[in-house]
Amino acid sequence: MAAGEASNPRPTSPRRPPPGFTLVELLTILGLVTLLLSLLLPVIGKVRAVANSTACLSNLRQMGAAWVLYTTESRGQLMHYAWYSTDPQSQAWDQYWPGVLDASAVRGPALLCPAAREPSENQLSFGYGNVSHAWTGRFCDVGTVVRLNETTYRDSSYGYNRYLTAGGGFAGDTAANKLTAARDLPDLPVFFDCADADVAPINGSDQSPVRPPPNLRGDRITVNTPDHWNFLLARHGRGVNVCMADGGARWTRLEDMYQLRWRNDWISYRLRLPLR
Predict the structure, then answer these.
(1) In terms of Cα–Cα distance, which of 112, 121, 115 is closest to 217?
(2) Which of 17, 56, 217, 239 is the most exposed place for a label (fewest CB within 10 A)?
(3) Mean pLDDT across the chain, nearest whole number?
(4) Which domain holds residue 32?
(5) By three-state DSSP, how is residue 143 classified?
(6) DSSP structure class, residue 145
(7) Long-range Cβ contact pairs of 81-88 (< 8 A, separation 24 or more)
(8) Exposure of 124 by Cβ count < 10 A (0-12 exposed, 13-18 middle, 19+ buried)?
(9) Considering the domain boundaries, does residue 180 fall inside one?
(10) pLDDT single digits (tens) 70-110
(11) Residue 273 lies in a domain
């Protein structure tokens, strides 16, 4: 090329935009994402359910340890049942199981199952919980175990075996008031997932079983329903977590809740329950 001769720049083609997805490719990607989500969501749900149940069992073990400590320090003497008191107003609040656990700093979140952490907001429910909600003392009378005054009340996802109180009849004798009179401590329920603060379930028998709840969601529980409906909740799969009198805690299938020894003379049998 001669000096001073202008060079011709290389011709350039116009810049083309990068190729995008076609409609078919976009629909294919969306389909794959939907498929992956449909596969992952049940797994995530199961992982969450296992985590909730594990945390619930941990709560119950704390509650059981506090109860065992109280019973040991009381030389085997069981707590007294005191639901309501007016003079002083705090007697029931401090005396029964929530007060006993509170004295050992087992309170607040430790009394709430992660699967039923939020209390019921429906005043017509009288404060009862259900499969996914805790019970609350917000709508109960002042001067009770669950409500001290107008602004102070308790919420919990758990209930107590009311037979296991001084004179509660767990040993077939209303005068029995010490744990030493109880049998089969590993199968004697103390605390458990429940829609109310305590229960004393009627027994029945295999030939004449107790009336089953209409469903396992707990949405029909009222002041007039049988006590056993309060713990027949499909909160952890088809079962609930239970803390026993020896301090252990385990998951128990709903149909097997009457296989536990709620009191010494308990007639054990398998419950017949609705599917859901």
Answers:
(1) 115
(2) 17
(3) 89
(4) 28-259
(5) coil
(6) S
(7) 81/162, 81/165, 81/166, 81/167, 81/168, 82/145, 83/144, 83/145, 84/141, 84/143, 84/144, 84/145, 85/143, 86/143
(8) exposed
(9) yes
(10) 999 999 999 999 898 877 767 889 989 999 999 999 999 99
(11) no
